Amino acid sequence: LAGKPLVISTWDTGLAANLGAWQVLRKGGQALDAVEAGVMVTEASQNCCVGLGGNPDREGIVTLDACIMDDKFNCGSVAALERIKHPISVARRIMERTPHVMLVGEGAQQFAVAQGFPLEPQQLSPDAAKAYQEWLKTSQYRPVINIENSGSHKPVGPVGGANNHDTIAMLAQDAQGNLSGSCTTSGMGFKMRGRLGDSPLIGSGLFVDNAVGAAAATGQGEDVIRIAGSHTVVELMRQGLSPTAACKAAVERIARIKGDKAREIQVCFIAINNQGQHGAFALQKGFSYALCTSENQQQLVQSGYLLK
Ligand code: SD4
């Protein structure tokens, strides 16, 4: 199915990331290259909590997770990676140059260095260092809805500000009609050392089936994992649901499981189908996704949400 290229990505930081992806798509490039180039913009950005500028775990160490999936069920994932600037590119190398899907921790870093990725200094960004000092005063792990990186009851940045999200997930369809997706994160701020969320897990943080569609998640990773969220959204689209309806059904499933506790968390899904339709849905108010269908058509779309 040949179509018009299209890229969507989570939160307001997705606007700049989509432009990065668009540079690939507009030249007739592949969706896989686009979703890598796109989220690299966010990983490299100084004023964003994705990548090495993100908030650390409770021991004060930044650990990064990412995954990537193409139109042929090739996938690569890296988790608990330290001191490497572009985890998404490491995930892609794992996909393309190893017999494995996933590498974690020390072994992942060893592979990255052997592949020529520079080892960056072990140090927190000024914002993260400040946030960590503040967090140490209470040392309470209490993620704030839509401000996942704050990790305590005190928001670190302005609500809805560009620096509040520690994750970006991106989905693209190229001019040939092929789909790919990427997801990269510093994980929930002040998480336990060794904690992994949904973002590096194929099927939870991201899933692509070129014959159907692609989906990705952001928000409370533990609750996305519980229902293998992104895979669920793709399977619902396979049954005929639109991207938005599929995202909504997955969010409703999480809400049923969580009961009263649903009010304490945020989960959000984005999706595109192989017809180039896109959509999203969130548990709580405040989620938006960035949409790009041409150089001059950058747009932030407000997602629908379940809990009024
Ligand atoms: C995680 N899903 O590590 C990520 C967090 C996130 O915006 O999406 N934050 O659980």
Automatic annotation (TrEMBL):
<dbReference type="InterPro" id="IPR006311">
    <property type="entry name" value="TAT_signal"/>
</dbReference>
<feature type="active site" description="Nucleophile">
    <location>
        <position position="167"/>
    </location>
</feature>
<feature type="site" description="Cleavage; by autolysis">
    <location>
        <begin position="166"/>
        <end position="167"/>
    </location>
</feature>
<feature type="binding site">
    <location>
        <begin position="218"/>
        <end position="221"/>
    </location>
    <ligand>
        <name>substrate</name>
    </ligand>
</feature>
<keyword id="KW-0732">Signal</keyword>
<dbReference type="InterPro" id="IPR000246">
    <property type="entry name" value="Peptidase_T2"/>
</dbReference>
<protein>
    <submittedName>
        <fullName>N(4)-(Beta-N-acetylglucosaminyl)-L-asparaginase</fullName>
    </submittedName>
</protein>
<dbReference type="Pfam" id="PF01112">
    <property type="entry name" value="Asparaginase_2"/>
</dbReference>
<dbReference type="GO" id="GO:0016811">
    <property type="term" value="F:hydrolase activity, acting on carbon-nitrogen (but not peptide) bonds, in linear amides"/>
</dbReference>
<feature type="binding site">
    <location>
        <begin position="195"/>
        <end position="198"/>
    </location>
    <ligand>
        <name>substrate</name>
    </ligand>
</feature>
<dbReference type="GO" id="GO:0005737">
    <property type="term" value="C:cytoplasm"/>
</dbReference>
<dbReference type="InterPro" id="IPR029055">
    <property type="entry name" value="Ntn_hydrolases_N"/>
</dbReference>
